[in-house]
Design goal:
single chain, 59% helix, 14% strand
Length: 111
């Protein structure tokens, strides 16, 4: 099963603009980014449970749309929406906050 979230862009997207965005997120070689664009492959792909990966995909999506590129998002190999990934990110943040609060609570008890 494909347990990834990923982002793709149209193969006719302006490569130079995309390269600078992708490299600000992941240090991929220019040739690799170019190949992924031309072959309509995932530009970035992360495990579904990766909090940082979700944030990277959201950041990439935001930057690409700012320059007029319409990226496609995927979850478990199926198309998904930005709303879904925003909700996923929000859920991860809520879980992290709950864990932090629980740890703080335990630290207060130990003191």
């Amino acid at each position: 099963m494909n347990d990834q979230i990923s982002i793709r862009i149209p193969s006719d997207a302006p490569i130079a603009k995309v390269v600078s965005i992708i490299r600000s997120i992941e240090p991929l070689p220019i040739s690799e980014i170019t190949s992924r664009i031309k072959n309509s492959e995932d530009l970035l792909s992360y495990r579904y449970t990766s909090t940082n990966g979700t944030k990277n995909i959201l950041h990439c999506y935001s930057e690409l749309t700012k320059i007029g590129i319409s990226p496609s998002l995927f979850e478990h190999g199926r198309p998904t929406s930005i709303e879904f990934l925003n909700n996923l990110n929000k859920t991860y943040q809520e879980i992290s906050d709950e864990i932090d609060a629980e740890i703080d609570s335990e630290d207060d008890i130990d003191e």
